[in-house]
Amino acid sequence: MANQFVSQIADIETDFPQWYTDVVVKTKLVDYGPVKGTMVIRPYGYAIWENIQRELDSRFKQAGVENAYFPLLIPMSFMTKEAEHVEGFAPEVAVVTHAGGAKLEEPLVVRPTSETIIGHMMGKWVESWRDLPLRMNQWCNVMRWEKTTRPFLRTSEFLWQEGHSVYATEEEAEQETLNMLHLYEEFAKTVLCMPVLTGRKTEKEKFAGAVATYGMEAMMHDGKSLQSGTTHYMGQNFAKAFGVQFTGKDGVLQHGYTMSYGVSTRLIGALIMTHGDQRGLILPPPVAPVQVVIVPIAAKKEGVLDACHALRERLQKAGLRVKLDDSENSPGWKFNEWEMKGVPVRVELGPRDIENGKMTVFRRDTCEKSELELASAGEELCALLGEISENLYQKAKKRMHERIVNAETLDELLKGVDGGNFVRAGWCGCRECEDRVKEFAQATARVMDGENTAAKCVACGKPSVHTVFFARAY
Amino acid sequence: MANQFVSQIADIETDFPQWYTDVVVKTKLVDYGPVKGTMVIRPYGYAIWENIQRELDSRFKQAGVENAYFPLLIPMSFMTKEAEHVEGFAPEVAVVTHAGGAKLEEPLVVRPTSETIIGHMMGKWVESWRDLPLRMNQWCNVMRWEKTTRPFLRTSEFLWQEGHSVYATEEEAEQETLNMLHLYEEFAKTVLCMPVLTGRKTEKEKFAGAVATYGMEAMMHDGKSLQSGTTHYMGQNFAKAFGVQFTGKDGVLQHGYTMSYGVSTRLIGALIMTHGDQRGLILPPPVAPVQVVIVPIAAKKEGVLDACHALRERLQKAGLRVKLDDSENSPGWKFNEWEMKGVPVRVELGPRDIENGKMTVFRRDTCEKSELELASAGEELCALLGEISENLYQKAKKRMHERIVNAETLDELLKGVDGGNFVRAGWCGCRECEDRVKEFAQATARVMDGENTAAKCVACGKPSVHTVFFARAY
Predict the structure, then answer these.
(1) A82 and A89 Cβ atoms separated by less than 8 Å
(2) How much is the average pLDDT of A93-104?
């Protein structure tokens, strides 16, 4: 029976891209939309996004950030006000040219990100130092017309949050850029059970219009890197482009300093490719739509279904997200189905378990079975879910650290990324060398290490200025 | 001091439209976006929407509906598959013609509603009776290019939820259409403290492509009606257009029956115009971003601020949304500000209150002051907020029922709506008479009453077939 299901999913080691496609479609996380490059997020996938949203949103609110909503359509002229920004985004925008049965005077861009329109509104709202800092976030859809797309990882439309703040001083705005990076890192660890590398991006990899971009990068099962979140310090670039000015305590009119930060539905792709195995998904307990699935054994025997219902109720009261699969499929079919769907814990309950006051518990992360006391089911399963989260994180962390290798030459770097590693190497800081690494090894600078520990640039051999994590990336 | 503020808001009785505009802008609920007809929902307004979302979303989930997300852009060809639907929506869609730097082969419509694209996906997903019912909801932005716009009430882009279900039988789909109408009605009453009239819409007023539309209508301060939510029974119209077919238990391939339902950010406009008064907003406690504002009196006296902080903490622990206004403005300034912003309860805490173990409490709905015990602040204020909710509902309900009048002639009907009433009148059921009422009295059929209690049609005098609530409407 098991083989029947496993055979539906491509081999994770030899064909990881197909494994990913099989898993996201067969588990009904997502489907392809009718317009090329779009996705439909199905209930099982959207429930993961809701859990991500709830966890992140409470962290933002705790940090004092308020939610707002800005319009989808941005005047084309706004995009051109910040020179680097338009260069970065113009090639991938979708444009509304007609509306209400007539041609528009000015074409409107479907937001690829909202720095420009939020900058415009901040320019209206900010007048005095008393109005600062102004810290807002929005949950919304954005659109970037991509040539090659994959569900969650790169789609023409995706869902995200984008936070935007304006501060009176450079120091505060820079500090917030780092604070939000750390918030993301803690969230990735605690909620997605996903270790990340964080650091500053190179000039080549930074956000169009930013002074500095910081990113968090996660290592996927195949050793490639997935950019999972970014924060940007904008200096006064957008404040100057949109007239975000305030009168300081000193009575002087001056420009504010802005920053922004975002994560998207891409995080769902990240957690799938971090934790999944040959059987399918392994969902981290904090975001799993179903944390515990109860499968009745010999369901027609007297008392079994009643006991399952009673257990479900108790577990729900204990705050767990529980599903009782009382469908007519066989237990074996259900085991496979819910394993593929990545439910962290399966409870099997049959006549003998009930008689003994026990339940049989299968944990998805290790695929091990054990027996637990029915009487203390709530506490035992809560503790087990915590243990699973910790194990998932430690396992992924161990893999990531085992797969960070150092390189002093381009050949070593190539060998490193070919072997599915992140490669730590010195870099002189010049664009030519960064381009050379890309050409030679199809690897990009993911983030810069906090300190420069290498002696020489991996490409030109001149003194190293930054130590960089290079990797192939999604 | 009070006058200074009141004078900023137009007179509610003589210039209600300007009152509305003044209130929504000055309380920072909303601002105008740079593109004509768009709005920016500012944090204070968005927090109301979040509270509405949370309350409605939990009701949907309780009812067994799951959230999902469908693409923003819909192929133009989809819109034309249901004949009435395209006729209704074509004049107001925004169209993407270019993307990624090139002209698109087929223009894409920014969704005005998602029946078509969801119908298309349901057609892919539904195969057997086992797949039914399929019940989904999405929270998203939609766009309808309107000529005359007003914040929350009618904007080219707005936020909403749209639920879509497919059932195997007509009876189930029709029943769900009524169930969701009742869910909305209960929500309006309990959460928005807003009484509504519910009923079926006439053919003229129904959704483009529906077999039957049901609506809930609320009476605004000026006696006009605001359509606040609708549910639609589609029969097999969309199922046939998009091939939503399933094999029944009898082995026969057949079309499903679909229905949909939605409410939008318009609800924020509804509650403002239901409850507001000359001083500004009066927010119902269940959705108020701030339920209790604490204003320190003689804040510089020893112990006052400490007592205010301690009270805030206690009230937060009691589950209340509390703001302590410790800014440098005068108490009088703060009173006016928070009254304008509609905070249900103000607590004033000064040295004498603290000494006596009391707090001075001002309730926004009646503008009455009283003293409550500090020791039991949490319970007392929770109870008071409940009382305020009940009072707001009863007050609005009384007004609505006092302002429903009967008419037997067009002159009576005109007199009724001129006087700011809903008019209950007989109708023969023909479109000509409905148009005649519109022309004669600028009133439209809002909903039909459950039973036909009138003898004659108000327009032609022939026997009445439906009793209708006519009103001027937003």
Answers:
(1) no
(2) 96
- B64 and chain A: CB distance < 8 Å anywhere? no
Record the tokens describing residue A356, joined without a space. 């003994």
B51, B60, B72: which to substitute to probe chain A, counting the most A Cβ within 10 Å?
B72
Strands A345-349 and A322-324: unpaired
Residue closest to A231 by CA, chosen among A202, A201, A257: A201
Q: Give CA–CA dist B97/A7, Å, rounded.
A: 43
What is the 3-state composition of chain A as percent helix, strand, coil, each rounded to the nearest 5?
35, 30, 35
Backbone angles phi, psi at A64, to 5 degrees: 95, 10
Whole-number pLDDT of residue A2: 44
Q: Tell me which chain A residues have a C-beta less than 8 angstroms from the C-beta of B69.
A: 40-41, 46, 49, 159
A451 DSSP assignment: S
Distance of alpha carbon A299 from alpha carbon A305, whole angstroms: 6
Judge contact between A276 and A120, C-beta under 8 A.
no
Q: Which of residues 146-185 of B touch A (CB under 8 A)?
A: 146-147, 156-157, 159
Look over chain A and give the mean of its residue pLDDT values, rounded to a whole number: 96
Residue among B47, B71, B78 whose CB faces A40 most closely: B71
Rounded to an integer, what distance in angstroms lies between the CA atom of residue A384 and that of residue A361? Answer: 10
With contact defined as beta carbons under 8 Å apart, do A246 and A127 qualify?
Answer: yes
Asked if residues B213 and B206 have their Cβ atoms less than 8 Å apart, the reply is yes
**Any idea what the Cα angle at residue B448 is, between residues B439 and B164, rounded to 5°?**
110
Dist. CA B426–CA B407, nearest whole Å: 8
Is the pLDDT reported for residue A6 higher than 70? Answer: no
Distance of CA B247 to the CA centre of its chain: 38
Q: Which residue in the set A33, A43, A98 is minimally distant from B67, CB to CB? A: A43
Asked whether the predicted pLDDT for residue B1 surpasses 90, the reply is no
List of long-range contacts for A435-443, beta carbons under 8 Å, 24+ apart = A435/A204, A436/A410, A436/A460, A437/A410, A437/A413, A437/A470, A440/A410, A440/A413, A440/A414, A441/A410, A441/A413, A441/A414, A441/A417, A441/A470, A442/A417, A442/A472, A443/A413, A443/A414, A443/A417, A443/A470, A443/A471, A443/A472, A443/A473
Q: Which residues pair with A344 in a beta bridge?
A: none
A146 contacts on B by Cβ (under 8 Å): 100
Q: What is the DSSP letter of A257?
A: E
How far, in Å, CA of B408 to CA of B100, rounded? 61
For the beta carbon of residue B428, count every other beta carbon within 10 angstroms: 18
pTM metric for this prediction:
0.97
User: Is A344:A387 a contact under the CB 8 Å cutoff?
Assistant: no
Q: From its phi and psi, is residue B397 left (phi > 0), alpha (psi between -120 and 50) or beta? A: alpha
CA distances from A350 to A235, A256, A299, A318, A393 (A): 63, 65, 7, 22, 32
Q: Tokens 């000509």 sit at which residue?
A: B432
Alpha helices by DSSP H, listed for A28-167, are 43-62, 76-79, 83-89, 115-125
Of the candidate ranges A6-10, A50-54, A404-408, the one whose mean pLDDT is the lowest? A6-10
| ipTM confidence | 0.96
Estimate the share of chain B in helix, then strand, then coil, as percent rounded to the nearest 5. 35, 30, 35
Q: Token digits for A344?
A: 């962290």
Provide the pLDDT confidence category of residue B8 given band limits of 50, 70 and 90: confident
Q: With cut-offs at 50, 70 and 90, classify the pLDDT of residue A7.
A: low
Give the pLDDT score at A450.
87
Domains of chain B, with CATH numbers?
2-275 (3.30.930.10), 292-386 (3.40.50.800), 404-471 (3.30.110.30)
CB–CB contact B120 A34 (8 Å): yes
- d(CA B361, CA A335) in angstroms, rounded, equals 59
